[in-house]
Each structure stands twice: as C-alpha cells, then as structure tokens.
Amino acid sequence: MKKYFLSYKTLHYANALVVAALVFFPALVAAESLDEGVLEDAFLLTLSDALGAYDIDVTSNLNSREVMRQRIQRPRLGRFPDLPTDSLASSEEIANWETAYLESEIGGVAILLDEIPAITTEVFTGRWLDSDGEKRLFITFFQDDLAAAEKLADVVSAYGHVSDLYFGAEHVAAAGQLYATAAQRLAIDSRSARRYRSEVTELDFLGERVRRKSTSLFVDDGNRGDDSQARREPSVFLKETLGDEFNQSTIEAIIVPGGVALGEIASLNFVPSDLIFDGKELMLVGEDGENWRLPEIDLADAKALFDYVTRSEAINSDAIVDIDGEGRVRISSALRDTDVGFAIMHADTQPFEFVSNLPVTKSVIIDSGVDWQQVEKGEPLQFEVDYEVRFLSADNMRIAQTRAALKYEYASERESSEYSDSWGRYVGRLDDNLDYSGLGQSMAGVATYAGWLGLFRRLHEDQVSFLRGRYQFMKIDKSGKRTPSRY
Asked: Does 120 map to a domain?
C-alpha cells in the first residue's frame, strides 16, 4: 500500500477545489446529521453541510442508541461519550495507536481550529501545544476510509483551519505526539472500520451502544468491562471511609480493608500553570514564567505514580496494595511489576514486624496530609507528609474499626520520619519497648511516594496543563521488579 504524508501545503492547494464544489453544486450540500446533539457541537455543525456533499455523515455521539439503530450507509464522523474533552490518551492507548499506525492499518487527521497560514510541521506542533483544548482535535480512521479522511482534511482546510493527515509508517513520532496531546478524540465510523479488530480505543468503541439509562459504554468501575483485571485489583475503597480519631466507624461496606491506601491532595504555596518534561526531569512553570524544580526521583518511579493517580481517579479508590492472611497479593494494575509497587508491597508487611501484641487482623498505612513548599528560590521544592500506621479489626457487624493508630511526619529535606502521636482503644496495649523510630523509617519510602501522589493529584484536580514533553513522558518504561502472586 502506498505510504505518504499530506502536508499543509498539499491540503492548502485543495482548498480552492472544495470551496468551488460548495459554491457551484449547492444542491449536493445537504446536512446529514444523525442525531439532534450535533446542533450543540459547533465543530460538527460547521462542517456538516460540506461533509454531507462528500457522502460523510456526522454525529455528536457515535455510541448513541438512536444512532446505532440506523443502518450504516456511508462513513460517519463523530465523537464518543467516553472520550470527553481533555481525556488525553494513556500510555497504553498511545502504544496501541502507534503499533497499528506503523502497520499502515490506521491513520489520523490532526485539526487545529485556528486561522493561521500554511506552516511547517514543527511550527504546527508548537502552536498545537500552545492552544486550548477546544482547538485541538484528532480524528482516527481505518485504512479503508483514507478517501473519506482526505475529504475531511480538505473541508477543514477550506473552512480556514489547519489540518494534517498522517498515514503510513512515516512520521510516527509526529503523529504520535499529536495523538497523545489531543484534547478531543474523534473517529470515522464505517462498515470496514467496525470489522477491523483492534485495541485502538477509538476503533474499539465503534459499533457499540451506550448502556441503558447511561451515557457510557461501561459500568462506573473504570475497568472498561475487563472483569479479570477488576478481580485482581485490591478492594476498592477511599481511605476517608476508615474514619479518624474522632469518627472511627464510617465505612459503609462490610469489610476490613488493609494494606496501603494513599489519597491526599497536596497543598501548595505556589500556583503552577504547566507541568513540563524536558526528557530528563519534570518541572513546574507558573503563568509568569517562573520555574520550580522538583526533587530528584527516578523517572520510572515518577511514571508509575503518575499512572496510579490516573487509575485511582478513574475507579474512585485509594487502595494500592493488600496482602491477605494467606499471603496473596492484590495491587493496583498501575503499579503492578514496578519498583514502586514492589517497595509499597514490602512496606505493607512491616507493621506487624514492629507491633505484634495487638488482637487485630489488619494493618493499613494511609496519608493524612501532604504539603509542598518553595522554601528557597532556585532550590528544589520540598514536601512534608503526615501519615498513619493503623491496626484494624472488625466489630460484631464486620465493619472495620481502628484499634490503634500511630502518627508520623515525614520531611523530604531530611528524608526521615518522626513519630508524633497515637490514638485508639488499644494504644495502651502497645509494647513499652516498641521501636517507633524503626517503624517510621520502614515507611519512609511509602511517605515519599505519598508526597508525589499528592502533588500529581493536585495537578489533576487543578487541571494543570501537561502537554510539553507529555508524549515522551508517557512512553517511559516503568517496568521493574515483578509483583509476586504471594508474598
């Protein structure tokens, strides 16, 4: 199959032909909107008439039950309810997309809704990364729909926007970077595309309809229907459900969770507007251009923690790892077979090495506060983490109760933990010779990870932009020590 890349200049020359078609053949310009929702979609509404002239339908929801009831007659351009604006591609999605692209099975059309002249690829990418989410669209198509993709690119250019069409094994890095940073991910639907078996998200969604009384293809567990993966995750819960010193019984589920659960959102004494990766380290940048250096961290560890936050937000759970009474390990899929996951798993085994005389069944390590600060200008940021090592057992209703909790404070500057206080009904049963310092230091690694997780959660919560260097960061290999099935 012929492999090529359509540049801006090539598409620019096609604009005149498109405009002429719209002017001299108005009878052909018939909007073919498959659903009423398109009327609220400015991009699709603008192009619907012109695309109708080229036998391309449009819809704001390719998975709509109403749309799916209609027999597919010609290619459809549309969106997905499970890919809202700013749902940037994950590492796995990027890898799957690039693999299919290298096999010339799929292609993409990058669209920048900005009226700028024909420019080079480098300038286009720069403006793309500087643009707001409503202007960065990426449309994935199956190889058999190349002709429809070419028409789409021509129409977009005719309307004064900039588009790039990528197909074939060439320019994979350029195409991959645009896909990885696209704020809006659409696709061209067709009979051929539906028959294509692919792990590419946008094509995998084709031909599926949303669940009844839902706007999604999936149940609200973030697992995209992967039951085997869900079964291997630790029990889903938020650490707040474990209660605190003054309200110790708030968990609703009849369960005694344990392990490690980290879910604090960091407080900052500075206001970042962008997260940047320069190929060697992560940096935070403010609106006034001020840079804040982050503490040193292995890039594979940073990537694993970044992925965990994404996973945690998707399934609404703080649980990282849990080892049951038979030594079976359950760990978040985002941290499985990583050095971070292995270190946290090992830390989960330590509390009972220091505290062995309590009639409890579980220990759980949770964070209770994360604070990042700029202490001295030009120096790396520092952070402090408050965390607790708790010991739990079930009451007569099998609801988790904290029997004893040891509080610690970790400071990144000192790389050490200090015992601060304890609470709980069984505190008086703690051994007088308990090695508080040793227990705290055994948790120092977990506290460090908690600090970074808190920062990533804050950036996620505040929607801090991470586009520059995102493509390179998402391709970092985070694999490390294998997670055993039993510990």
From this structure: yes
Contacts of 438 (CB under 8 A, 6+ apart): 354
Can you give the pLDDT at residue 376?
86
Length of the chain: 487
Q: Scanning the structure block, which residue is given the tokens 């009451």?
A: 395
Half-sphere exposure at residue 114, Cβ-oriented, CA atoms within 13 angstroms? 21
Give the range of the structural domain holding residue 94, as residue numbers without chain letter.
4-204
Q: What's the CA gap between 461 and 152, in Å, rounded? A: 35
Cα–Cα distances in angstroms (integers) from residue 99 to residues 294, 303, 410, 471, in the given order: 33, 21, 43, 15
Q: How many domains does the chain have?
A: 2
Is the C-alpha dihedral spanning 6, 12, 18, 22 positive or negative?
A: positive
Residues 146 and 242 in one domain: no
3-state secondary structure of 119: coil
Determine the distance from the C-alpha atom of residue 343 to the mean position of all C-alpha atoms in its chain, rounded to a whole number: 23
pLDDT averaged over consecutive 10-residue blocks of the chain (487 residues)? 40 42 35 55 90 94 93 95 95 97 97 79 90 96 98 94 93 96 98 95 96 84 46 82 75 69 96 96 93 96 97 92 91 97 97 93 95 91 97 82 95 95 94 94 97 98 96 98 94
One-letter amino acid of 29: V
Asked if residue 274 and residue 200 are part of one domain, the reply reads no
pLDDT of residue 227: 45
Judgement on whether residues 183 and 241 belong to the same structural domain of the protein:
no
For residue 239, give the nearest of 305, 319, 309 by alpha carbon: 319
- What is the distance, to the nearest Å, from the Cα of residue 186 to the centroid of all Cα atoms in its chain? 18
Q: Which of 170, 204, 238 is the last residue of a domain?
A: 204
Give yes or no: residues 34 and 78 share one domain. Answer: yes
| Judgement on whether residues 296 and 374 belong to the same structural domain of the protein | yes
Q: What is the pLDDT of residue 81?
A: 95
Q: What is the model's pLDDT at position 121?
A: 81
* 223 domain-assigned: no
